[in-house]
Every structure is written in C-alpha cells, then in structure tokens.
Amino acid sequence: MDILIKPKKNRYIIYAIIIAIFSTVGMNISLMNTNADKLLKKFEYSSTWNNFMAVFRTSISGKNDVRLFYQLVAVGITLMFLIIFSYRFCVREIVSSAVVSIIFGFCMWFGTVFSNKESWNYFLRNKYVKILDIWYILAYTLLMFGALLIIGKIVAASGNKAEQKAEVKTKAKTKDKTVRNTRKVFFMCAAVLLVCWLPYYIVFWPGFQHTDLPTQMLQYFHVPTRFQGHDITDGVNILYSNDHPYFQTKLVGLCIEFGFKIHNVNVGYSIYTFIQMIAFIVAFSSIIATLYRFEVNHTLLKISLVLYAVIPVFPLYSLLIGGDSFFSVFFLYYMLEILWIFGTKGAVLKNNKFILAMILEIFLMSASKNQGVYVAAAMFLFCIIYFSKYRARIAVCMVVPIILFQFGYCGAFFKVAKIASVGKQEALSVCFQQTARYVKYHGDEVTQEEEEAIKKVLNYKDIGNLYDPNLSDPVKKTFKTESTSEDLKNYFKVWLSMGLKHPGEYIQSFIANTYQYYYMEFRNKRGLYLKPEIMDFYIRKRPWVQKSEAIQKLIRKLQVHVPENLKSVREKGVLAMDTVRRFPVVSWFTNPGVITWMMLIGFFALWTKRRYTPLEFLPVFLIFGVCLLSPKNGNLRYLYPACCMVPALLAAAFGNLREEQANAIEDTKEVSKRRRAGSRKKHRIARTLPEDKRQRVKV
Prior knowledge:
two-stranded parallel ribbon, about 700 residues
C-alpha cells in the first residue's frame, strides 16, 4: 500500500487537527490528580463550566514531565487521520474498527482505575470527574480507531497485491519441490534459533526453576507435602497432585536422580532444560515452515523468526523448569496440527498417521495442564461445524484423546499412580473473590442463613480481611475440602442472591482480578524467573517446611549451585535481562496486556481479509479466556502459550495467505497424485504385453 495524504476536502485537515488535540489532551488527563473534592470546597465558582475547567486544569498538571511525548503523539494522530480522510471505508471496516476501539478505550480506563484503587467509586464521585472519564475513554478509542482503519486498509491492499502477483506466477510448482523447500526452511529456522539461544543456555546454565518445583520434587521422592489432607481430596493416600503435571514431575525427577548419581545436580537440571529448549526450537521452526508451506509472506516470516530468536522471553522460558513452559511446548505442537487442518481445509485428516499424532498430542497437552482439555474440547466444537465433510475423522482425532484423558488418565491411571485431582476450589477463584469482596464491603447486609451457607465452604470470618483484588489464593486457601455437593449448591444460591443485590461489586471484583491481561501498560515486571535460589526461598516462605529437618535437607540437596566461574557471568546476564526487558518491542512480549492487544490486532487483520478465516488461531484466545479465570492477575506465565503464537499470528494476519492459494496447493497435490497413479498403471500394462510391443508403450 502506498501511503497517501491527500484529504478529499480541505476541511478534513481541520477535522484531523481537532481530533488530534481532543485525543491527546484526553490521554494526558490524570484521573488520579483531579483533587476535585478539595478543589470545589476551597473555591466557589460562578458556573458549572468554571468548576469543570478548574478540575480539568488540575487533572492535566501532573504529566508535565512527558509533555514532549504527548506533543509527538498529537502530530502522529494528525497525520494518521489525514491518511484516513484520504481513503474511503466500507461500513464493515468502520463498524468493526469502532467496536474494537470502544473495548480498548474501556480497557484503558479499567486499568487506570483498578491499578490505583480497589473500586471505581473514586472515579465516579461527581459529574466533573465523570466528564473527564468519558473524555479519557474517547481519547484512547479515537487513537485505536484510527490505527485499526489504517491497519485494515494496509491488509486489504497487501491482499490485492498478492493476488495480482499470484496471477502472474505459474502454478507448476510440484509437491516434491514444495516439500523440499519446506524442509529447508525448517532446518534453517532451527539452526538460527539454536545459534541465538545457545548463549542463553550457557550464561544461565543450568536453567531456572519455578517456585512449584520444590513441591514437585518432594512428591517425586514421596515426601508428604502441604497437599496431603489440605488442598486435595483424599490427600492422605496420595503421592502426587495433579496441580502439577505428573509427566513433567517424573521427567525432571529422573534427570535430577541422574544428577545425584554423578554427584552433580546441576547436570540433571541442565539435561532437562536442554531437552525442553530443543523441543521449543523444533516447535517454532515447524510453525514457521508450515506457514511458509501455505504461502504466508516470506518477509513477515523472516521477521517472526527474528522475533523468536532475539526477544529474550522465548529462550528464557525454554530454560524455565515449570509447568507453564511444559504446557506451552505441547500447545505449540497442537497449534501446528490445527494450522495443518485449516491450511489444507481438512484434507490432512485423510492421513491416518496425522490422526494418531493428533490423538497423542491432545492427550499430552491435556495431561500437561488441565486447561488443555478445555481448549481441545472447544476447538472440537468449531471444527466439527466448520469441516462437516470430515466429521467422523475429527471426532476420532479430537474426542478419543479427551475420553482417554478424562476416564483413562484421570480415572484408572490416577488410582494406580496415586495421583489426586486438586480440590474444587481451583475452578472457583472468580466466585470466591466475589464473595470475599461482598463480605468486605457489605458484610452488614449478610443474613444469618447466608453466613451459615458460606461457612460450610469458606472461612467466613477471614475472607473479608484476606481479600486481595489481584490474587484469589488467600481466599481460596480457606476452602473446606470436606464440604459436600449440597454445601456447594447452597453456597451458589447465596452467591447468586448476593450478586443480584450488588452486581457492581461482582463486576469490579472480576475486573480487579483480571485487568492486567487487557490493560496496555508498559511497567509490568512479573513473569520472568531469573534467580536460582528457589529452594532457599521455598524454605523461608513455607512454615510447614521449617518444621521438618528431613524435608529441609532434601530441598537443600536440590538447590542449584552455580559454578564460581559462571556466577559473575550469570549475574551480568540477569542484570542485562532486567535492562533489556524495558526496551520497546522486547517489553511488549513480557506484558500480558500488550500481548492480548497484539493478538486482537492480528484477529482484526484476519477479519479484514474477509475471505480468510481466523479460526485456526482461536486456541490462542481460548488461552486468554482461561487467564480471565486464573487466580492471579497479570501473570505472564499463564498467558505465555498465547505469547508464543503472537509472531506467527501477526505474520499470517498481515501476510498474503489466501484461500485461493491453499486451493492451488491442494490442486497441485491432486495433479501430482494422479500423474503418479497414471504412471504406475502404464507400467503394469507394459509388463503384460509381449517384448516387441512394450517399446510402443510410453512409460
């Protein structure tokens, strides 16, 4: 697309300037710096307008330190709308851009509100502040609206240009040549990622450990943990908890046991991290090669490869020994198979080997984290509708592993291996948070019957004081595992009746516990685990561990001891990562809110293409949906599986993948197949003829 700044009418230049000023001033409003109450008490103005202007001047006085930044923003918005006024847009483009932009405006307001206060009452306290709220929301809405309109036009223009090039190119590309090129791309990507990631492996050898790892290793060595009789049902008679992936616990445990045998636990950790790093490299390389196979723009795929190679979050998470990294590996391979299904319009389902691989992959993804089975079940419903021609095969490759997981793995295998499912509280974080907030702010309205119903499920006396808007674990830990189904039924009746009395509190509780997943801020520092002192931290923070010398001895034995010659290198590496993570682009991939909006923009671009469906990237948004039900707000590790797909999603969204090209690939495959079948038939005919007539048959 050639950028054109030529407004259709001169007055549109004035409109662009007005929009830029309105939007820039609105974004410059500091809702926390209004001081409206004190201001209105101190001065008496003659009119509402004067009162509002006094509050407004006070609100924008707190951002003088970034005045130059907002001046540049104003210039950028002016140019953006001058470009917009130079083109025509259809109703579909305007409406879809407006809807997404309004959502963005409210998300920015929610983030501003709940990052400073537990409630939005402070921001709705009088009519003057409400006007500023509306202005603030509209400012960000206009910014995103203009950006989306331009993105839509760029995507549409690139798609048309791709079609024109496709008409000129010949369709004589054979299947064998396509396969060779795809394999070449795969090995090239794998080599680039390996070279770029090896320095991380060396500097941060033998890797990083998540805080759940000590509990997993205690379970592996059959040492009782806090889960026995506390967080899970029948905890006394179990050895493992499904709160952590069983297969990962066994794999890490085997590596550590090997480290114990050679008297160097670091080697055990390094073996596991190397295996996991290679698994990530193969997954990323396969996804890029697959998109290359389906004719995604090669330049954008190179940019995606650079992002995977250069952005630190990808190699760092490949070296993290934690359940979320383990799940992310299997999620990537699942996405690879989904891309193949949609890229071939279901034709790949004719391959029995592919079906067997998908059954295994869905089972492993579900076993690596409970949310995997929900992602697989949701995608099954979409695929069974979208690919009606292959319903039987879709049912086999997507339903069979779910049944195996639910009844075989979680049923019979759990009993044999003495694994217990986590308590019901793990799925009720949202409800428990809402109840705790209600008790905290409206405890005087709780009746005796309501209190009794809550007491049978939660510790009623403590939940109000334990309520943390960003974390549900303190409230969730008061859950009573002995509560029956009837107790939960009565609790939900009370939960519903309370919500009908004060629905605003329930909405605020949900937003306060989730806003960082959709608020585009650039200051989030959570989600990366760079310190090796996890075992010492575990002992200090777990009172039940401090009571047992035997447990402390085992945990200290599991502690990573960085070699002296690597300590200074590792410390410099950690310092470098803390610095680099603040850089633009790099910081985007460590911020859950920015990751979410990159995904949304990618989906919007796919939607703009009209004839190209974004359903194959739907699991990415299902991961986001699961994050909204997670216990912790804005934790990168929960959203990391989706983060892994962002570069590939954006490449497909802004590339030239079209349905016509996918059809051409399938047509080429069919032609090649027919040619081979015809050649074999001629050979068979020639063998049945006399020797003198065989020469006449062209084979």
